[in-house]
Amino acid sequence: MALINKIREKSGVAVTVIAISLILFMVGGDLLGPNSLLGGNNNQTVGEIAGKEINIKDFQSRVDGFRQNYEAQSGRSLNEGELASLRDQAWNQFVVDIAYKKQYDKLGLEVTDEELYDMVQGNHISPSILQAFSDPTTGRFDKNAVINYLKNLKTLPLEQQKSWENFEKSLREERTRAKYENMLRLSTYTPKAQAEKEYVAQNTKANLRYLYVPYFSVVDTTIKVTDAQLEEYLSAHKKEYKGTDTRSIEYVTFPVQPAKDDSAALYTEIKELARGLATAQSDSAFAAMNSDIPLPINQSYATMSDQLKEAVKTFVPGGVYGPYREGNTYYIYKYGGTRSDTVSSAKASHILIRAENQSDSAKAAARTKAEGILAQIKAGANFEALAATSSADPGSAQRGGDLGYFQNNGAMVKPFEEAVFSATAPGLIPRLVESQFGFHIIKVTAPKSNTLYRIATIGKTIAPSQATRDEAYRKADEFANTVKSREQFEEAVKKNKGLVLANANRIPESATNINAIQNAREIVRWAFKDDTKTSNVSPVFETEEQYVVAVLTGKSDAKDVKVDDFRDELTTKVRNQIKAEQISAKLKGATGSLDDIAKKYGAGALVEYANEISLATGFLTSAGFDPIALGKAFGLKAGQKSGVFTGENGVFIMEVINKTEAPKIADFTQYKTQLTQSLESRMSYLVNEAIRENAKIEDHRAKFF
Question: Residue 253: phi, psi to the nearest 5?
């Protein structure tokens, strides 16, 4: 009895402790998180737009509404990437509600109830309504379906009623924004003088001869650039270098790599699976049941890994092959022969030359540049090298233009696809191919094939054991605890030959990845914390299959631009200025023909021709597009030679051999239309940028997410 009484006496305390624990569990994030009240941060403002603060609760409420709608429509929960996208949508909605609405209100722009009715079920149906209420089979819009839906709206669940309310709200916003942008678009005006200037720039032709000394002809290491020179240049060009809030770090990674024991155990397992695959009545079912990585039973070259492309050439029907290792995965294959597919695969490389805008002059300039590169390749120049330096497609440029294998199923734009799949042999396509992206120079590296390979595949990935993970963490933790500054950090890396020091410069506060490190938000948030000082060493962070320890090496402030924020860019600019002065001094006073001057100058001086070029589409052989040089040339008369001057890419002396002036015309409508349409095509972007700049937006979301 004494024991029972004792329990009863203490039961009230136990219940209280449990209750407090539950409360802390439920609201712990709000009370104890990095932006919490108890965590020392009273600021719950996620940002400011046009002077109005956005509270984190209001922002999160809007995100939750977007999430509920998304999950109701998709029937699944969001992943982290999709949630980040919804946060962007919610933020942009606040920008519209506050910054855009200020502009609408000033002009008295609105969408009335009558206008909304007309958009939903009247004579001018909104495209969004047309899409939502069209028959998916015939594509035909049924206005009665809209009317019946609205009649029954109040009988639907509250969630659906709320969803329709939000939909109508979005229709009003879309129409109001369209009115605003159309008003500005229709107010664009191109004066006759500007149209005439464009006509002359496009149609005045000249044949030029010029001496060109590129900056790169002077070795960088011979030019010393001081901090004082960088400061002076930055001070004179402040408008060109806008500040941003960024952080720079150095870091080391401790990969969680499978140990020998982990690999040996999996190798034994996959050998057993190979025997099972060989005798299985249904090899496809056996492979699907035992593989960590699902792969189609029928594969073309477009879907195969590089290793399998080579291996399949030696396969015999009915044979089991492997294991082949790719990264941390072992593969075994059972080969079932080939058949013809309804689609074909091919492999190609390309060099893309884009037009700066959609004007005729920009397209002509891009075409001229592309034709010049194509001519170089036909003359024997290296395709891969030119792709790396000239292509506007960064993804393929770093691979020498290689696009890999692809199929003729719309994976590529139509003109490009037709050109590649019309080729019957590997090699350069001897003409330019134009698409909406620009001009393509294409080399077919493997012509079309419609062979389909039947391959049952089992892929087993080596997973590190818990002991392996613990050991990697131990090493990372030991490293983090033994270094307290950047100097100690770098010294420790030098002593440990198993570590590689990596850099990540100018990381924005909203970054989710750091170089190749995915899901690196915690590292970014640590770097931006107010109490993280330069030279501070981070705790151990876990990201996917590795642990990371970082040291903060630098900060940049949007309101206080420093040389270190743009050191590399400023150094290049100042170095080129010094080079220009040295080259100009060496050329100054030189007389005679351009060939004579080049000979006196020595190595690095080039004498070249540019024939039938215009100011709008001029492209110099080695210097590329240099507007300063072109402007100087077209300011000369036929037979005139300029003095020494500095262009964008080097130092020049221009000589006009002859010039054909643009014929006189009375009607410049065509050129006026070109310029107007070019401006109108960018109107939406320009309006958005102007409104955002005027609203002085402060975005602090990265402190919360």
Answer: -120, 150
